[in-house]
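Next up, a chain.

===
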Amino acid sequence: MRVSFPYGTGFHELELPAGAVIIEPRAAEALADERASFLASVREPIGAAPLRECISSGDRVVIVTSDNTRPLPNAKLVPWIIEELRHVPPENFTVLIGTGSHRACSAAEIREMFGNDVSRTLRIVNHDAFDAGGLGKAGVTDRGGEIFLNREYLEADTRITLGFIEPHFFAGFSGGPKAVMPGIAGIDAIMRFHSAPVIDDPRATWGLLRDNPVYEMASRAACLVKPDFSIQVTLGPGHGITGFFCGDVLAAHRAGAVFARESSMRACDTAFDIVITSNSGHPLDRNFYQAVKGICAAGEIVAGGGRIISLSHCGEGIPDDSEFHEILKSHGTPGGLLDMIRDPSFARPEAWQVQKLAAVLARAEVHLFSAMQRDKAADTHCMHCADPVALLARFMKEKPDARVAALRFGPLSIPYIRERGGL
């Protein structure tokens, strides 16, 4: 059985053994008229007044969106927003890229994300979590956590957030309050949000919002200075828009999470000896940092001592010389990495991504097929894979009765062995 896996901007095919289980998102058709569906959703939103009624002509409007590691269709959404709010002059808008602790998007990447017209017409800026001068105090949560957010967001008259809802490996689902926390938060709050005990919490997992400590912290932070309106989408495997969930940031996100769970979560009876995963292609597999999500999705159903094959292009590398890369190189074993990160005295940005990866590596082999050279791939603690076809054939020769699963679209389809409760 030949199966194609998204890989970069194309596909990579593998011949899978008979009986392999193919796990992919349930069919959710792309909307026939995306713009019409957008207009209907922002004019009849969930838990909020229509978008046009939220904003006066003289308002300074900040639109918060994701960086270029997310496939959010900014080139469609932002022009539609501007058109719907045509009573507001273009110079009153600022688009704020919620980078969290990631690097800033370059001018070329911004043009790719928004298109030439929007890039020339609107003011678009990157959030910088490390710039204390660009932050302001939003308040203190009911748990006593002091939260600093982007100053332009705080000083705006009206705040709109955009988001892409999919299962997330420790926040339950992406989108929603994550646009604010960690999207436009200061680094101190981001570090608390991703602390080792929080990431280790069994409730900080895919597809779970109820009692999830990561989701709860994001929600508390977002509600200190709550977005006036939120526009969130679900996407199909080809990145076509399958649903709009607009209005109140929490109510709309929860509605979208229910929809995403139905289309992307799949229960499995037993674990698998071999799990093959992608990271759903470009832009989600542009670097290894993002590819960790597909590996962790496979980790949900791989048997102890099993094997994962990750087909992730990683054209941008790990990325090199990032905090994530430096932490990966700082210890020779997954167990050593986990011990280091869990030490209360250890605190570095991006450690949470290493923590999630190391937890999978500690119980299963991970083989990485990518555009990275063998010496660079070695820094990931994964085994370099030059030929996934030959590798799979070798595994099947060693264990002819191996149970095999394939996650064609990686983190867009999340399997699980046992029910963990509702949203």
Observations:
- The CA atoms of residues 310 and 368 lie 5 Å apart.
- The two ends are 35 Å apart (CA to CA).
- Residues 249-264 form the longest helix (16 residues).
